[in-house]
Amino acid sequence: MSRNGLYIAYDPIYSYPLPEGHRFPMIKYELIPGQLLYEGLIREENLVAPAVCPDKVILYTHDHDYLGRLHNQTLSAKEQREIGFPQSPQLTLRELIITQGTINCSLHALSHGIALNVAGGTHHAYAGKGEGFCLLNDFAVAANYLLQEQLASRILIIDLDVHQGNGTAKLFEHEKRVFTFSMHGRHNYPFRKEISDLDIPLEDGTDTITYLDLLKKNLPPVIKSYQPDFAFYLSGVDILATDKFGKLKVSTEGCRERDRFVFQILHENHIPCTVAMGGGYSPDIRDIITAHCNTFREAAMISDN
Questions:
Q1: Does the reported pTM lie above 0.90?
Q2: Domain-embedded: residue 1
Q3: Which residues of the chain have pLDDT under 70?
Q4: For the segment 102-133, what is each residue's pLDDT rounded down to a tens digit?
Q5: Contact between 231 and 155 (Cβ < 8 Å)
Q6: CB-count exposure of residue 255 (10 Å: 0-12, 13-18, 19+)
Q7: Does a structural domain hold residue 174?
Q8: Is residue 3 part of a domain?
Q9: Which domain holds residue 116?
Q10: Is 179 helix (H, G, I), strand (E, B) or coil?
């Protein structure tokens, strides 16, 4: 590891063929590590390519029949429409690699405090179906892995993507060892929300000050009362005012302050954290890369302490 010791799970999306029209939002998975390497925040040794997550671990969370349909490429046309991608062996493979990356990050974070997955945050996937470009729910699989292996006992999932993590909320609705916290657009996808342990719906046009005030008001009491021993943080940058789908008005610096606050409060409470990037759909790719790289910059500051 380089001076800051960041552990970054990295699986380049561009190594898999995608239909025309899907390349733009996915190119960020190539550009984020490139930018971090260029500015010297990380070295090649910080980037770790995961293996494929074993079926046994996936089945802690997902239905056997659904996993079989992913492997055998037998998803129905309706299922593929809900996911948003046509099925392919490459995409299933990528999802299995991303999921193992989140598990690897979690194991590293247990010893070193924080680790990040360049991809991940596939929070719309349910036990038996995918939605919203999510085939498998990597946070849920990793959380269940930690519980199964008795590596954590009280897990907090902090989902600050602009879209509610409906799959995550549903998967853990009866699991008291996992607390789901979501701040998301009230009028944004998914239009049928599930019930998280704490949902904070945001009105269209929510600005930076309002957003940060709500986060700083609501997250600390959850940490104080629930006392998690592990956290997952979905740091979507689709809250930006520039995002074409987000409907919020948060500035780039406000998004960075959000990350800084989350990392600081977890660090102060000695809670290890795995981070995934989540969504970001600003028309100018530079806005997306800047905001995502800010997450890594803030994480590096924490890991240096």
A1: yes
A2: no
A3: 1-4, 12-25, 304-305
A4: 999 999 999 999 999 999 999 999 999 999 99
A5: yes
A6: buried
A7: yes
A8: no
A9: 8-304
A10: strand
